[in-house]
């Protein structure tokens, strides 16, 4: 009733619903990513087979980013499922239970970076912010303090926008060549 004065209150049912919707959307996005990844691998193999190594090297960077995003979605799906099951525990505890720190912080971190693809995460973020406060959320979503707040380091790595390691690019190109039965080096 006085939400407009004090900010939104934590609503367990809304949080649980948004988490479940998020899991459903993640599953859809994972399927799309897998199709995209398969197609990109096929395209890169064709480029390598036709001697267009420079184009293949450029395309493999996009493939690595897609694979990282797919892996991030897997982690995020698990955390969303966990939180949806434990939303009553969140409701009953005034402070964040220690065994849920990683899942809560990781979902908040991902909400900042994946909200375009997963708009439900913004609603979850608002709910968690109502429960644990703006300062905690700010620390969880900031790259500098995310590790301190127990955000999953693999999730941070998978969601980072960075140039892939040259060795990783070469390894993936070699893997694609082997997968499609031709020599490349």
UniProtKB/TrEMBL annotation:
<protein>
    <recommendedName>
        <fullName>IST1 homolog</fullName>
    </recommendedName>
</protein>
<dbReference type="Pfam" id="PF03398">
    <property type="entry name" value="Ist1"/>
</dbReference>
<comment type="similarity">
    <text>Belongs to the IST1 family.</text>
</comment>
<dbReference type="InterPro" id="IPR005061">
    <property type="entry name" value="Ist1"/>
</dbReference>
<dbReference type="InterPro" id="IPR042277">
    <property type="entry name" value="IST1-like"/>
</dbReference>
<dbReference type="GO" id="GO:0015031">
    <property type="term" value="P:protein transport"/>
</dbReference>
């Amino acid at each position: 009733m006085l939400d407009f004065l004090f900010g939104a209150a934590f609503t367990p049912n809304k949080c649980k619903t948004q988490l479940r919707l998020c899991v459903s959307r993640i599953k859809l996005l994972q399927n799309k990513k897998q199709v995209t990844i398969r197609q990109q691998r096929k395209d890169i193999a064709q480029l390598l087979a036709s001697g267009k190594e420079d184009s293949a090297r450029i395309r493999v960077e996009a493939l690595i980013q897609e694979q990282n995003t797919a892996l991030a979605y897997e982690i995020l799906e698990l955390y969303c499922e966990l939180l949806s099951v434990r939303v009553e525990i969140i409701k009953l505890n005034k402070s964040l239970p220690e065994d849920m720190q990683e899942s809560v912080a990781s979902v908040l971190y991902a909400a900042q970076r994946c909200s375009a693809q997963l708009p439900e995460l913004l609603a979850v973020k608002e709910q968690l912010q109502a429960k644990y406060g703006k300062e905690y959320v700010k620390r969880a979503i900031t790259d500098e303090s995310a590790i301190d707040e127990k955000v999953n380091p693999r999730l941070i790595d998978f969601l980072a926008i960075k140039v892939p390691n040259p060795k990783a690019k070469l390894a993936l190109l070699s893997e694609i060549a082997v997968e499609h039965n031709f020599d490349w080096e």
